[in-house]
């Protein structure tokens, strides 16, 4: 059962998302919060698998709430998905840096919303290749060409290859096919890279890959 925490200062938004989630046999909404402060309290109390967090809220905003969740050892298993009205707005990259697993626009189709919750619960990043390119092209304009001092030297060649493929939006199965290895081995490469780079999840690997210059931004 996937345990979900809903965090939004608009009751109508929360009730709409909850109505969708309550119809699913494998998803349970364990709590709702109206601001970032409540989010932190309820996340600590309920330890959800996924926290759907509005990016702009009173008291504590979604970015700061995400940052505090990511820094809390007891909340290491909570995958934060940022909710935004504006798509690739100025806050999204900050949210990924803070530790968010990805983001959703609030007018997302119901089936895509439910899929995203399940993807986040698995620990995968919610960044399709097209969205990744747009995001990085907008916010990362001068990546370091050598990656010096970024932690790249700690990675094996296979781990680097796996990080590049994560940054391209590939799933574990797709990475395994591309690298001609088993999905379990692909997952091992990714997990070791995350450990060495102190990345909380795959989304942070994506950020690292572009900021270090391991993957270069390209125009759409």
Automatic annotation (TrEMBL):
InterPro entries: CheY-like_superfamily (IPR011006), NreC/VraR/RcsB-like_REC (IPR058245), Sig_transdc_resp-reg_C-effctor (IPR016032), Sig_transdc_resp-reg_receiver (IPR001789), Tscrpt_reg_LuxR_C (IPR000792), WalR-like (IPR039420)
SMART domains xref list: HTH_LUXR (SM00421), REC (SM00448)
UniProt keyword Phosphoprotein, yes or no: yes
Keyword tags: DNA-binding, Phosphoprotein, Transcription, Transcription regulation
The keyword tRNA-binding is assigned to this record: no
Domain of life (superkingdom): Bacteria
Modified residues (4-aspartylphosphate): 54
Domain spans labelled HTH luxR-type: 148-213
Official protein name in the record: Response regulator transcription factor
Organism ancestry: Bacteria, Bacillati, Actinomycetota, Actinomycetes, Kitasatosporales
PANTHER family: TRANSCRIPTIONAL REGULATORY PROTEIN NARL-RELATED (PTHR43214:SF24), TWO-COMPONENT RESPONSE REGULATOR (PTHR43214)
GO biological process, one term: regulation of DNA-templated transcription
Domain Response regulatory residues, every copy: 3-121
Entry GO MF terms: DNA binding
